Amino acid sequence: MPRSTRLLVLLLASLAWGARLAHADEVFLKNGNVVRGKAHVDRARGRVTVEREGASSTFDLDDVVRIVEGDDGRSAPKDPPPTQAAAAVVVVPLHGAFDTRLAARTFDDALANALSRKPKLIVFELSSPGGLLDVGRHFVRRIRELRAAGVRSAAFVYGPHHGAYSAAAYVALACERIYMAPGQAIGAAVAYRPDRSGIPRAVGAKFDSAWQAEFRANAEASGHPGALAGAMVSDAHGVAELLGKASPRFVPATAVLGQEDPPPHRILCRPGQVLTLTSREARRVRLSRGTAEDTDDFLTKLRFAPTERARLADPLAAARQRIARLQAKLDEDLAAYRAVVAKVVSQAPGNHRYPLDRSGRFADGGRAWRRRTKAAQKYVRRALSALERIDARLREFPDLRANRKGLAQDRARLQRLARELTVHRRAERPPR
């Protein structure tokens, strides 16, 4: 084939490939790179694969900012995203501890899904020992926003943990109505911080006072008795119910126990005790508006037909599953990083011996030293780059487990080694 013909063929092929790129999908990564090609998203595995000319690349969805679909007139039109079926009531289960900060994101996703169905009521099926206060506060803020959107909220305490305790009780009290299943409980919300061994320790008086006020205010904003909420979060005063009132009235137990002639009352919780109510006790003091055997029974009692109901996936479980995937990916990255560090150690020129002449200079003029220095510098750059990616992942997802202090020390050592390699890369004799 004449040379001019070969050039023409290559030019046409290049133009054809450029045209395909013009219509290709674009995958924008968090590191600033943009990958173009045919994107295939696998949400089950949390990955996206981009097919390019003669090659393909796979990325973790957590490393992707967004995907822009290409406009190729030759391809069949893509189906529009499915719309969620309308439902009069949506159930959002919250089972297990509030133990990951990522749960705030998955909770927001669940609420967006729920609101897209145009419900009249969102039911939070609570069964939790509590957990991180910041996560509980996030849940409460979002539940309060439902009122402005014209959507009612209810907590149904039911599930394998047999109650809503601590931060979970805080979330339940943010709902307009509370219902419970038999054998469940609510309360026990005293704040604590775990020490290094994981043993709960009392928080400072300043934080404790603020948390008690916040807990009471949250309950009162939703129409629940502040004195009951106060006894759940502090053992200082207890709580008593004044009898003979048309509607229940609650006061600190210390207000009646110290009187010579106290009004008729019933002590629910004495000073020195923290209030936790069973479903029957909560119903008696009207904190709970009703009792149902399970969620289906509860919704039936509220007169929602089965066709009007929708149940979403548990955002707490979704957060734990995503953290598990991210942790597995991080562990792979850490193993790859350690392999690069091993290369640094093996190539570091100071870790080897060299033939020297009588004057103490390198017998080969320093060629072996420079070769190993160049290799070590390459691996140091790779190790520092890997550390950057790992640090970024840890900053974005604080729930991930890693020896952060050790990684910071590694960074300092690698940076110091990089400077030393630069200074001594042309040494004529082994540095002292």
- Identify low-pLDDT runs: 7-22, 72-82
> What is the CATH homology-level superfamily of the largest domain?
2-enoyl-CoA Hydratase, Chain A, domain 1
Helix-strand pattern, N to C?
HEEEEEEHEHEEHEEEEHHEEHEEHHEHHH
Query: What's the alpha carbon Rg, rounded to whole Å?
Result: 32 Å
Beta content comes to: 15-25%
| Anisotropy-based shape | elongated
Distance between the termini: 63 Å
Number of helices: 12
Query: Helix/strand-derived class?
Result: alpha/beta
Shape-level CATH architecture of the largest domain: Alpha-Beta Complex
- Strands ordered across the widest β-sheet: 4-3-2-1-5
Q: Which CATH class of the largest domain applies here?
A: Alpha Beta
Strand segment count: 18
Residues in helices, as a percent range: 40-55%
Examine the coordinates and then state which fold CATH places here, giving the name of the CATH topology of the largest domain. 2-enoyl-CoA Hydratase, Chain A, domain 1
Subunit organisation of the chains? single chain
Query: How many individual domains?
Result: 3
The average pLDDT score comes to 86
The description of the largest β-sheet is:
5 strands, antiparallel
